[in-house]
Amino acid sequence: MPARVQTKLLVAFLIIVSLLIVLGAVGLVVLGESNSRTVDLIRAERKISAYRQIQSDTASQLYRVSAALFAADQRALDAALRQLNQFGYDLERLQYVAQDEVELLGRVRKDYDQFVEVVTRLVDLIGRGETTAAHDAQLKQAQPLAESLERLTNQLVNKAESGMVAGIDASQAAYRTSQTTVIVLVVGSIPLALFLGRTISWSVIRPLTEIGLRLRRMASGDFAQQITVENRDELGELASNVNRTSEKLGQLYADLRAEQERSETLLLNTLPRSILDRVRRGETVIADRIPAATILFSDLVGFTQLAARLAPERMITLLGALFARFDALAAALGLEKIKTIGDGYMVAGGVPEPRPDHAAAVIEMAIAMRQAASAIGAEFGEVLRLRIGLHSGPLIAGVIGTHKFVYDVWGDTVNTASRMEEYGAPGEVHLSAATRALVSDAYAFKPRGEIAVKGKGLMETYFLVTRGDGASAPIRSPPPGKPVGSVL
After folding, report:
1. If we measure between CA atoms, which residue out of 397, 488, 465, 394 comes closest to residue 434?
2. Which of 54, 255, 371, 488 is the most exposed, having the fewest neighbouring CB atoms within 10 Å of its CB?
3. d(C-alpha 425, C-alpha 276), whole Å
4. CATH number of the domain within which 454 lies
5. Tens digit of each residue's pLDDT (9 = 90 or more) over 155-200
6. Separation in Å, CA 452 to CA 219, 294, 401, 448, 482
7. pLDDT for 360
8. Which segments of 245-309 are extended strands (E)?
């Protein structure tokens, strides 16, 4: 229905009010009918009481008159005659009560008047001493009238009682009819109430339930489903708005997820995953003491002259390709790229997660970096050589900065690795005796002897040499279960 919700509720309310009014009106009619029947029964009871009184008085008067006539008592007859006249007034008042017995009461009145006339003549006869004539008149005239009056008063009582019985029967029948009417209305109201409840539920409650369910799904991240509400009212408009909001939120959520993934990638390029998880858990100071790790520093030989000779765009492109290859190698070997400084590249093995083969993995990285530099140089028509230095030992690793995070390493091991690169030779992998001792005889080395290193004094160092067939040692995959570094 294209009506507003408040209109639908108002209509339902008016229907309920109308039903209550009908029930109330029926109840009033039933009560009125019952009251009318009760009044009629009371009137009938009063009428019967009056008729019985007339019957009793008539019988009493007739008995007195008969006794006085039989005894020929003048005074008794005068008294009976006065009582008969008084009784006439009672009959006149009875006409206002006997609305249904007017004809019968008229016959009583007629016979009564005749009986009074006869008794009056009898009193005159007895007063003149004509007793025999009085007795004859009594037998021929007074006695039949007395018997007629007795029959008529009995009929009055019987007719009134019959009317009362009929009234009681009618009252009971009216009660049963009213009872049936009320029951029918009440029973008929039940399906109407159910229909109204079902209509309101379908029109109001069901759409609200659907909208609530959709909102809960939206809160859980499900923006795909749409609400189907057939109402053409405020609830239908609300459902349409929820659908549009869900669609818009779905788009925003997808954009947010994509942005989150991009942020995740950028963060992983800045911080190792394990360190990133610690930052997200709320750690504000992250500093770990690493008991054993290997640091690699590399530097592009002749970079200053190369940068002066090449266009800036080409120089950046060349460095980007070279470092991208280095990043891929670090990820494949499970090493952690620390940072780049100009044309320098720094990588660590055994950081942040410890691994027993950190020295061998970094040596593999150095071998592969030399190969990658030769390959990238060939692509750009340049001769690229690296100076690489390695050293192993304990260090401290952690995160510095609050707005721009940097994962870095510190300690004598880092400084010594930097010196190995600084005191190395173009195209060579220069490593300390500490790193040499960790890989034993797995690789071939050329002793360089003791050299004076700034800040360290005399140190025994080595150059990594190729194998007998002239090929560098192959790149080995990281051991199972070891972490893999990030890749730009």
Report:
1. 394
2. 255
3. 37
4. 3.30.70.1230
5. 777 877 777 777 777 777 777 887 787 788 778 878 877 777 777 6
6. 67, 21, 36, 12, 37
7. 95
8. 287-300
Compute the distance between CA of residue 68 and CA of residue 60 in angstroms, rounded to an integer.
Answer: 12
Containing H/E element for 135? helix 131-137
In the predicted structure, residue 274 carries a pLDDT above the cut 70? yes
Confidence at 72, pLDDT banded by 50, 70, 90: low
Instruction: Report the alpha-carbon distance of residue 198 to residue 205 in Å, rounded.
Output: 10
What CA–CA distances, in Å, run from 407 to 84, 268, 375?
Answer: 138, 11, 30
Residue 127: which domain range?
5-194
Last residue in a domain, options 194, 227, 258:
194
3-class state of residue 294 by DSSP: strand
Same domain, 44 and 160: yes
Give the Å distances, CA to CA, from 373 to 123, 326, 361, 474.
169, 9, 18, 16
Burial (Cβ within 10 Å: 0-12, 13-18, ≥19) of residue 305: exposed
- Model pTM? 0.52
CA distances from 126 to 53, 68, 71, 133, 388 (A): 30, 11, 10, 8, 175
Residue 315 CB: number of other CB atoms within 10 A? 17
